[in-house]
Amino acid sequence: MPDAVTDRLRFARALYDDVPLYDPKRAPVSLDLTDNTNLWGMPPVAEHTWRSMPVARVTRYPSLYAAELKEALATFAGASPDRLVTGCGSDDILDSAMRAFGEPGSVVASSEPSFAMIPIFARMNGLRYVGIAERADQQPDLDALLAANPRILYLCSPNNPTGAVLARELLERAVREAPGVVFLDEAYAEFAGVSAVDLAMRVDNLLVIRTMSKAFGLAGLRVGYGIGAPALVRDVEKSRGPYKLNAMAEQTALAALQHDMAWVREHVALAVQNRERLAQALVQRGYTPLPSHANYLCVPVSNAVAVGQAMRARGVAARPFPALPHVGDTLRISVGPWPLLEQLLTAFDDAT
Ligand code: PMP
């Protein structure tokens, strides 16, 4: 009997045999600068809303498709509610969209380096992942990406981990020439002040993916959204299913959008200011951080893994990205309040 169960399980899980479990090795440290969240905290009215949540929010089901939140997100993003789909973080949007548009074996192509979850989501959904090294100017190699004949072409702006903004003409060409759907991940768009939502409002094959985990400080609540043509987002919504946004998350996110935009803007501006100050401090130490338009800085450092470990031993975590094309080993540092970045610099100095 135990053998039969094992065989059945092996049959059922064949798809997952070579799918790694995402594990960025986040052992506790006193200062974690690895996940690009809002290190100033959460917006005040959102916090009050969260703390005073009525019990009925927990005992009853949430709204099916977060209709109220879609209205507020549409106003914020310059879209319309019929062009929006929400999800349990933008991870959920990416995963559901791959399920919606991919068929077994179809290609998901992404520029590399980029968001580490993309190859995992592709394989999880039975799709074939093709990674293409970016050009020396940190822009995607669009010719090579299109040559892979992708059902789904994933682009990220600002890109994680480099911080580079995607050139608009490359995006427009991708939308024109891609044989399938183009995903544009704008998880950090608020920090860049650049977005392609306007394009997603006009074409039928562009899905812009966004999140409230970064600028809005709500990573733990898991609120993400996608913007695209009504038929496109409806397919994502079908593959995502109902009730994906929990009731507390929806109400808190709504409060942030309705009442906390001044707080959000102020802290986005502070992140940008401190990113530049950190870049200067690193330049003074002889390093050349990549130009970043997000709330993190990617710094070429030799032996980044060893440096990261030595910093961890001092209670500070930054994320090493070994052997990036054209730039070699790098450390990615999330930007937050300046006293935290001073602690980071002390650990960095000790470790290098
Ligand atoms: N896209 C990018 C580029 C990211 O860096 C992240 C988070 N690290 C996500 C998507 C997922 O964010 P979330 O699921 O919290 O919205």
TrEMBL record:
UniProt keyword Cell cycle, yes or no: no
Record GO terms (molecular function): histidinol dehydrogenase activity; metal ion binding; NAD binding; pyridoxal phosphate binding; transferase activity
All residue ranges annotated as the Aminotransferase class I/classII large domain in the record: 58-346
GO cellular component: cytosol
The entry's keywords: Metal-binding, Oxidoreductase, Pyridoxal phosphate, Zinc
Similarity remark: Belongs to the histidinol dehydrogenase family.
Protein name: Histidinol dehydrogenase
Organism: Gemmatimonas aurantiaca (strain DSM 14586 / JCM 11422 / NBRC 100505 / T-27)
